[in-house]
Amino acid sequence: MCETRSFVTGMYDTGRGRNVRTPQVVEDILQGVGDRPDNSTREVSRALNVPHSIVWRVLRDEELHPYHAQKVQALIPADYAPRVEFASWFLQQLEAQPDFSAHVLFTDENTFTREGISNTHNLHVFF
Question: The organism sits in which domain of life (predicted)?
Fold first, then answer.
């Protein structure tokens, strides 16, 4: 109070503060993305205590872009025999019980896969 003649303190040194884009910050950002390419830019920003915009600028300058994973279906040679076996079994079940297919749950492969249920909507990787 003696110095400023006010009870209100200065607003400087509150919050995160301004972090200049130093070579060390750039290196830390690239290291963070390199260690975990599936981290979001906001997670990197919080971990390193730098503005979100700095993280994006560094990634753009290094020509790193978020890529969304796309699932594709692929059959391998080992898949053919079980598929033929299943088709034969299914036809036998239909011959024995004509309404058998009404009791079977058919799903989209996007929801149920051999690897389990997955959500690729938010999955991204920086390359």
Answer: Eukaryota
